[in-house]
Design goal:
three-stranded antiparallel beta sheet; six-stranded parallel beta sheet; Pantoate--beta-alanine Ligase, Chain: A,domain 2; about 290 residues; 11 helices; 9 strands; binds pantoate; Rossmann fold
């Protein structure tokens, strides 16, 4: 069922809670692909009732980012989410989420601001304010849906770690479930932004997973020196790739690693055809 109003979600949630049902929330910005489908499937397996939100959240985009051109495919999203078993697809307008005519800035709107240590690195470095926007909307979605479980993809690893921190620090009564990255057969991590790439771009985009897999196999062979592991990436990079970062951090607190170990998360961001793509791998292969 497609729902646009917070009040309508609230009415359903109230009824479900009365009946003792568990509720799962899968927050998305739409343009759903097999990665999202895997989150919804997990939610449907684990929870009695599942809400999938579809909202291209304006406050997590910088002024020069792709808010306007971000793919919007609501009809197909509803079809996919319902076919997997979602009970509600919640697709609010920005006015519905933030108040009619509300100026979307932190001098008029209450924001949830994650700690500087978690946002001054990786994607947060080039996307200033991005995680404030993410935490604010995610907190609102948790409150609106009263969900017992929240499902997030591990592809946005920094996002998942920051949301975990928010939930812990603010005692939010929800359990977060991180779900593995879904990839095309050739290794390309699924992303709504892959839609911006042409065929050559998709081929060039394989560099991210190739670099990560190579680092993992070098680590498995016993190399734990991070400079040496980083060095292995350079042979994969061509003129078409604009590397933004390749970092080795602790999977729990994003602290920079001095030596690679089993708790090391390796994250990469690289522009291909002007499209900013991210990917990551955990060196011990276990989910985080
Ligand atoms: O990962 C996303 O799609 C978004 O950042 C999220 C979590 C739905 C918040 O808008």
């Amino acid at each position: 069922m497609l729902v646009h109003k917070i009040e309508e979600v609230g009415a359903n949630v109230k009824e479900w809670k009365k009946q003792g049902f568990t509720i799962g929330i899968v927050p998305t910005m739409g343009a759903l692909h097999a990665g999202h489908a895997s989150l919804i499937k997990k939610a449907v397996e684990k929870c009695d009732k599942v809400i999938v939100s579809v909202f291209v959240n304006p406050i997590q985009f910088g002024p020069s980012e792709d808010f306007d051109k971000y793919p919007r495919t609501l009809e197909a999203d509803v079809e996919l989410a319902e076919s997997i078993g979602a009970d509600i697809i919640f697709a609010p307008s920005a006015d519905e989420m933030y108040g009619e005519g509300q100026r979307l800035s932190n001098d008029t709107l209450t924001y949830v601001v994650p700690p500087f240590f978690f946002v001054n690195k990786l994607c947060g470095k080039s996307r200033v304010g991005h995680f404030d926007g993410v935490c604010t909307v995610v907190m609102k979605l948790f409150n609106i849906t009263q969900a017992d479980y929240g499902f997030f993809g591990q592809k946005d690893a920094q996002q998942l770690i920051i949301i975990r921190k928010m939930v812990k620090d603010l005692n939010v009564p929800i359990e977060l479930i991180g779900c593995p990255i879904v990839r095309e057969e050739n290794g390309l991590a699924l992303s709504s932004r892959n839609k911006y790439l042409d065929e050559k771009g998709r081929e060039d985009a394989l560099v991210l997973s190739k670099i990560l897999n190579n680092i993992k196999s070098c680590y498995d062979k016993g190399i734990n020196n991070i400079d040496a592991l980083k060095e292995t990436a350079f042979s994969f990079l061509k003129d078409v790739h604009e590397l933004e970062y390749l970092e080795f951090v602790d999977k729990d607190n994003l602290e920079e690693k001095e030596v690679a170990d089993d708790n090391t998360l390796v994250l990469i961001a690289c522009r291909v055809q002007g499209v900013r793509l991210i990917d990551n791998i955990l060196l011990n292969n276990i989910n985080f």
